[in-house]
Specification:
The chain has helices spanning about 45-55, 75-80, 170-185, 200-215, 225-235, and strands at about 1-10, 25-30, 35-40, 65, 90-95, 120-125, 125-130, 135, 140-145, 145-150, 155, 160-165, 190, 220, 245, 250-255. The chain has one domain (about 1-255): Metallo-beta-lactamase, Chain A, CATH 3.60.15. It is of the alpha/beta class and about 260 residues long.
């Protein structure tokens, strides 16, 4: 039995396909006969295009999980709600929710025309969605002037936990500590972004030190890591130690 993690939306996409690369992040996590959408990306039309190209139907999803309040993680939630024939649970930290304003918004909200198709679910502690799929409690962080909380998804693989993250705002050490404490073993995989800005080698280096110290064999980077961050991670972990992971790509892991 395996889990499959597929990138649906990312700044990068596979060449020679109709997939669109754009700001934001969305994964499809398939395990235990269920499909979880983790993040939606920013733009509704782009998510719809990629869902169509990858033959993902909104009604095939069992739930949507949003890690934190940055709009590029949830802005396209309307694309899912629009095509649902029955309501779907949308999980997010309680402080990530908000409302639409005349100019912008204060956090996650459901578009008015589809609001009855989304069921708000707040994340405060560990949630076990199925035998092998979990979401963490929101982990606090400070990023510049921004203060928030971010959740990560975890797949419990046969060799250990695999972390799926959007931005890793709390830092790799805090994320690893939370997951290791929950599962009582060291994570064996990290998939997702690293919020490192245009160029922040010390931040990438510190994240890579955690990965090296824990001898993590599976590292897939995308989203806010960007080409510069991925390149710096390869400087630390070796060319074969880091895989880029763009829209249209998948990774599979054995389950217990």
């Amino acid at each position: 039995m395996q889990a499959k993690i597929t990138v649906l939306y990312d700044e990068g996409s596979l060449p020679d396909t109709t997939l669109i690369g754009a700001k934001g992040s969305s994964f499809i996590i398939e395990a235990d006969g269920e499909r979880t959408m983790f993040g939606t990306g920013l733009r509704t039309r782009y998510l719809q295009t990629n869902m169509s190209a990858m033959d993902v139907s909104a009604d095939d999803l069992d739930r949507v999980v949003i890690s934190h309040m940055d709009k590029d993680e949830w802005g396209a939630v309307g694309a899912v709600l629009k095509d649902r024939t029955k309501p779907i649970a949308v999980y997010a930290p309680s402080d990530a929710w908000g409302e639409k304003k005349s100019f912008g918004c204060t956090g996650i909200y459901f578009p008015e025309e589809y609001k009855d198709r989304g069921i708000r679910q707040d994340i405060e502690g560990w949630i076990k969605f199925s035998e092998h799929v979990y979401v963490s409690p929101p982990i606090p962080y400070t990023s510049g002037r921004k203060v928030g909380r971010e959740c990560v998804m975890v797949v419990r693989g046969s060799l250990g936990p695999i972390i799926i993250s959007h931005c890793c705002h709390p830092g790799m050490e805090a994320v690893f500590d939370a997951v290791e404490k929950k599962f009582e073993c060291t994570p064996i995989g990290y998939i997702g972004g690293l919020h490192v800005g245009r160029k922040n080698d010390p931040l990438v280096d510190s994240a890579c030190k955690v990965l090296m110290d824990n001898k993590v064999p599976y590292v897939y980077l995308n989203h806010c890591a960007g080409p510069t961050g991925i390149g710096r991670a390869r400087f630390n972990l070796g060319l074969e130690g880091v895989h880029d992971f763009y829209a249209g790509e998948s990774a599979q892991f054995d389950l217990l």
